[in-house]
Amino acid sequence: MNTIGKILALTTFGESHGPAMGGVLDGVPAGMDIDLASLQRFVDRRRTGQTIGASSRNEGDVVEILSGIWQGKTLGTPIGFVVRNHDARSADYEHLAHCYRPNHADYSWQTKYAIRDHRGGGRASARETVARVVAGGIAIQLLERVGISITATVAQVGNCHDAGQMQRVIADAVAQGDTLGGIISCVVKGVPAGLGEPVFGKLHAQLAAAMMSIPSVHGFDYGDGFDMAARRGSEVMDRWKRRGDGTIGTVTNHSGGIQGGISNGEDIVMRVAFKPVPTLMRDLPAIDCQGNDVTLHPRGRHDACVLPRAVPVVEAMAALVILDNYLIKKTNVLL
Amino acid sequence: MNTIGKILALTTFGESHGPAMGGVLDGVPAGMDIDLASLQRFVDRRRTGQTIGASSRNEGDVVEILSGIWQGKTLGTPIGFVVRNHDARSADYEHLAHCYRPNHADYSWQTKYAIRDHRGGGRASARETVARVVAGGIAIQLLERVGISITATVAQVGNCHDAGQMQRVIADAVAQGDTLGGIISCVVKGVPAGLGEPVFGKLHAQLAAAMMSIPSVHGFDYGDGFDMAARRGSEVMDRWKRRGDGTIGTVTNHSGGIQGGISNGEDIVMRVAFKPVPTLMRDLPAIDCQGNDVTLHPRGRHDACVLPRAVPVVEAMAALVILDNYLIKKTNVLL
Amino acid sequence: MNTIGKILALTTFGESHGPAMGGVLDGVPAGMDIDLASLQRFVDRRRTGQTIGASSRNEGDVVEILSGIWQGKTLGTPIGFVVRNHDARSADYEHLAHCYRPNHADYSWQTKYAIRDHRGGGRASARETVARVVAGGIAIQLLERVGISITATVAQVGNCHDAGQMQRVIADAVAQGDTLGGIISCVVKGVPAGLGEPVFGKLHAQLAAAMMSIPSVHGFDYGDGFDMAARRGSEVMDRWKRRGDGTIGTVTNHSGGIQGGISNGEDIVMRVAFKPVPTLMRDLPAIDCQGNDVTLHPRGRHDACVLPRAVPVVEAMAALVILDNYLIKKTNVLL
Amino acid sequence: MNTIGKILALTTFGESHGPAMGGVLDGVPAGMDIDLASLQRFVDRRRTGQTIGASSRNEGDVVEILSGIWQGKTLGTPIGFVVRNHDARSADYEHLAHCYRPNHADYSWQTKYAIRDHRGGGRASARETVARVVAGGIAIQLLERVGISITATVAQVGNCHDAGQMQRVIADAVAQGDTLGGIISCVVKGVPAGLGEPVFGKLHAQLAAAMMSIPSVHGFDYGDGFDMAARRGSEVMDRWKRRGDGTIGTVTNHSGGIQGGISNGEDIVMRVAFKPVPTLMRDLPAIDCQGNDVTLHPRGRHDACVLPRAVPVVEAMAALVILDNYLIKKTNVLL
User: Fold this and answer.
1) How far is A195 from chain C (nearest CA, A)?
2) A262: pLDDT confidence band, cut at 50, 70 and 90?
3) Closest CA to C219 of D273, D151, D264, D157
4) Residue ranges per domain, chain D?
5) I need a labelling partner for D316 at 20 to 30 A (CA). Which of A52, B316, C169, D18 fits?
6) Dihedral (C-alpha) A121, A123, A129, A130: value to the nearest 10 degrees?
């Protein structure tokens, strides 16, 4: 349940204010060079404290590899890793032990397990994404070897689509104690045709599951996505063309690089929609476990907009899915 | 790869013009009454030939249960079933053996397997959804026993949101040899709080994967979905309330019944976006396997808009996911 | 739960006296020739009525392929198949509806599901192995293409190790209304070094699970197996040698072709121990569901010794495991 | 591939001379008390240096829990844990980098991954079992809550079956620079009837896979096991009886507590056969990667007989399988 992937399988663990976050990345092909400094830089991209409106919690987030990589190369064995939780001010969350905040996982989690580590959101905290980024960062390095690259960007913050204005829009929300959602778009280049499974394992279905599993995500589409719904077939037809090198491609890419659930060699294009952060920096109406209304005065550290920090998380999840399917593809033929 | 679900697991098989479609639904709890006549009626809802713009292929689609149900009750053993393919005019598709149609899976499939049953789309045909509907229909009957109901509706066809106008809009498209996409919305009522897994198995991530695996689907969201991206946190806050019976609920439902990936007891609300059918009833620009342009004159039977027929498919996929998570929930506690 | 295998995954269904047995074999590489006549002959090898002491039930067991094979070649899609149950005399089993026979699954099954198809053992019948043989027969044909062959033989019946005497030993048991167990040994030749997963997926652990899942099996070992326990390290050391072609092998094969859970290129050698058939052809002491002693007078058709019929079942299970690992091996490297 | 279990799933990682061994135990029911001191004592039982003939490597093996347990209770979230490798004298293994030792995983591993951490056997070392013992120790504590207990014992060392003589027999082998195998028997008491899955997931098939995955294991059987093969049906019949409390049981237990793959409420009894340790303390004939014969003079630390240390490993694996099936059983019914 805390595992994703079939051949390349990531299992993660960790509560926000426990000793550490971590994971096991199994199924990584053997003998591949891993640049650990580069991996650390990738992980640093999701760190907080770097942009306006981001949480002031600053973990350092040093990746410690415990297995599976030796002398800079993958062994084919599972890569175990941890990232310690150093800067956890649990006392800031004491008042939440018996409260359910709006739009948080407090209540649903309590009904599921009848127990809950309320400190910093426990396992429901977006801090769990650090393990995704470590694993995804490894996957990205392998994909580079086969000419596949992944780039996510913030396409929308609130209702602002202009990248130059986004920091200002976030600052405005912060000033009002409010928060923002947005959209991250992601493009995967260099994916060979033929990845993905035809029915339940359609490549876009796997990508959807991966992206929707990121905290705060409320929507996913690929290619022309939701806009497809309002278009006629004649308007979104991706005509074929023969490229100079004799291979086949399409003139347009309404299909987003996937047809019938299988990559067609064009860029894979998708969008991931995030809800606004639920913790406002103003009095919050909550309810306690007896059903009494209570008002919270949020302390702790919270992002006003998670989009900038979520960019490497989206890239990481894309990388895990694409590499897994790259490996599965090898099993489609016997000889 | 042709299996979905963890405890309740559906495996399907079948090519559009092969002898039969079918599946195995494993993990169904024992001792439950199944009304086979009602199941057949549910399956009949996805049959063609019932609405304007729908394919004229008419299979009958008689469900034959081969195991797992005896004397009207589930045995706890896997339910094997088949639906025969009677009305397959394979000759209609002969000319497609060496062609790649636009926006179809022909090319991507060929690159994956280097072999392909081109007749009627083979396994890439939406005919595979008949197996989903059989299995989902069984799941729906079990969910009814625990007070859970699922209703999908066509919310949009092309850019028409008015249900009373949809048949006319489809008729217009048919008249022009064109096709339409649309949006199906789905509501699940009566889901107890506590279903779903916190990280990779978030309930909405599982629903996304299930819905995105339906042929032609290009987008998924839940609650306020993509609209969430443009809203501020203060605008989408679902305030808690204590209900008359002492239980806790929310005043609004921007969250769509799921918080932190776990159901919160409110209605689960989601949308599924479909692309327009790729086969227009006009000359189609295709390419052959040598890269030469060819023009196709579509024959065979094709829907101009799959939305009406996809409604029970969406319900079926929702039912499979919800029932699976209902069963998994039982394992969260030992005693 | 009714599925085995990771990439090559077999899911089966069917009760002994239901309409049909069947299965879905997913993950079969595409484009491979399948000789259906040869497959049918392989399936016929497990049919009853061919040897002394075997059940007189004779099904014909005609394999009907429903998908995944077209024009004699695999498509890469799941192979669905059924074998109809024609000759089921359910009335013979009426008296067993409320009885628990000794050494049968009646009682344990009833406690698990609180419902049970008692006719012919329901899903607990060894008739379920027909689906294994269909799937395994397909796997065997693929393994032949890569030079891997599998041969199982009856090594022991009761305490008779002499193949020439086995028919007589079985006849003696039949004459006394008694039954016999035995041992089947299995050799897999031509397996390349490097198959199997190091820790929980050791090749012999997978083989053990596969063999122990065959009805009536009570033990499994490989190489020198249980005899290893009594030997000293110096006695079972497989010395390395360089073969004429420069490759490396071992002089002896106490290790049974597997070291550290991974094949080493030598023959894989294993043994599978079967208990005697529980249904004797004499009065049987049973108990009813109220706990009252009852005496059964077995009718129906039962083997006195299943070993001869189980030979292709053992071969089938070995083939499924080896082919699955052959495919997984492809994912150990990226390039 | 480094994961075992369906609902209760253990994933492990770690190389013998890497920074740490560890694992993630997912699916543990929430709200259960865990006694960490007791868990550490259980883990200490597999430590070396405690008996004659055991390796002198002494790690301390301090279990560090990183997640999933808070204030002494399970949270329902994955339990991440590590055990550091402190006392690894890698230089002792330098000479093995390009050698394949007899009966070790060196060669098969090299053919699989084309890279290998040769130090102390890398991931092929029995040191990986420390992660199994941590996870199994947690499972044992939960099983105690539902009245299930597990006891493994050394039943045979070499050809000695007398527990009082075993230390002497091992000492003799050590004196001769030789090694011994043996048999561990394991009894699980208090298992309710109804655990296990009927076909591929038979309880004994799962136990076999779990036990055969322990390093050095070459055989598994349950109940009368391999002896069943030589017996007649009339000799191994477990007659039913009604117990004083009205429940049903058997007079004898040739079936080993499992019938048709499902527990019947009697003690589950099984045997696990270990090969002798391959590293003798005398000159060893090996081969280098060019195929030249080389003679090794074993250094490093090696057990002469692993049986005493393997006892908690067998108990741990039994506990993981039984608890997993205990949880799965909950899903057999809907209400």
Assistant:
1) 13
2) very high
3) D273
4) 3-332
5) D18
6) 100
